[in-house]
Design goal:
By secondary structure, this protein is mainly alpha-helical. It has one domain (9-288): Tetracycline Repressor, domain 2, CATH 1.10.357. Helix content is 80%, strand content 0%. The chain is built from 16 helices and no strands. The chain has helices at 3-10, 13-30, 40-64, 66-72, 77-80, 85-106, 108-126, 134-151, 155-161, 166-179, 188-211, 215-238, 242-254, 256-266, 270-277, 279-289. Helix 11 (188-211) packs parallel to helix 14. The radius of gyration is 18 Å and the shape is globular. The mean pLDDT is 93.
Length: 293
């Protein structure tokens, strides 16, 4: 693999597609696409921001896990010697700076949110992941802020919809909690709790869709979303082995795209919802080539 390919692998491109979907969902929720003359530059800046933030956070995840990965995940780029630790650190810093500066180029509000995402990502990478409760909460905060980053394209909309950040927080809390058994397996209690929290998230999105008067359109995406996340999770509950949990986590991350499509549909932006959903095949394709977890 070329050096560029190694750097791309470090960033987990399949996951980055889901972070872009988060931001596009947030922009849809804000109503920006339904304004009289929406401009593409603000959208591109926020997409670039989330790519840098998510990519940088993932790179530093591998940086801080370098020693452990030599034992548990020797297939990763740093343990294999495909990229040095110092090269990975510089790459991660550059990505995070791109993420923060791109958001500030749009507005101070967006920049502050991007900065908070970078901070919480680094806290998770270094400290949070080692805590059974704080780790999932930390990662959930990052994803909740990512949705708010998209909504911040219109500051007044952020004042109206800030509470929606709780939904991806709960969802990612669930996935991160489940992923704690990815290497050595897990007890079923965590998986059952994850299933319950998934149901809570689905109910919240459906309720928001009903309030917005778009329950039917949004519900179609939610049905697909529920199928994609519950099928591998039930398999993991039957056999809570590391490989089955890994599949459940992978499906949970990639399926975020369908939840994001549901957000867009709930906001009355059906074209945007279909565009976001169309990112799913791209993420699945990348997931076959690059690791998701």
């Amino acid at each position: 693999m070329t050096k560029a390919g190694v750097y791309l692998r470090l960033m987990r491109p399949a996951n980055i597609v889901t972070s872009v979907a988060d931001v596009l969902a947030g922009i849809s929720v804000s109503g920006y696409f339904l304004t009289e003359n929406p401009q593409i530059i603000p959208v591109l800046l926020l997409c670039l921001s989330t790519i840098g933030l998510y990519g940088g956070g993932i790179v530093f995840n591998d940086v801080f896990d370098a020693d452990l990965d030599r034992i548990e995940r020797p297939e990763r780029a740093i343990p294999r010697g495909e990229v040095s630790l110092s090269e990975a650190i510089v790459f991660g810093i550059v990505l995070l700076m791109i993420g923060v500066f791109a958001a500030f180029a749009l507005s101070v509000l967006s920049g502050v949110i991007a900065f908070l995402i970078a901070v919480f990502a680094l806290i998770y990478d270094k400290f949070g992941k080692h805590h059974a409760f704080l780790g999932p909460l930390n990662m959930g905060i990052c994803r909740g802020l990512n949705l708010l980053l998209g909504i911040s394209i219109i500051s007044l909309s952020l004042q109206s919809f800030y509470f929606l950040g709780l939904i991806p927080l709960i969802y990612i809390f669930s996935i991160t909690m489940i992923s704690q058994g990815e290497v050595h397996g897990s007890n079923r209690n965590k998986l059952y709790l994850g299933a319950f929290l998934y149901l809570l998230v689905i109910s919240a999105v459906l309720y928001h869709s009903w309030v917005q008067g778009e329950l039917i359109l949004s519900g179609l995406f939610i049905i697909l979303f529920a199928y994609m996340i519950y099928k591998p999770l039930f398999a993991a509950i039957r056999e809570p082995l590391g490989k089955n949990i890994g599949k459940a986590v992978k499906a949970g991350v990639i399926s975020l795209i369908l939840m994001d499509a549901a957000w867009a549909a709930a906001s009355g932006f059906l074209v945007g919802a279909c565009f976001i959903a169309a990112l799913l095949p791209l993420s699945l394709l990348l997931a076959k080539r690059f690791a998701v977890t």
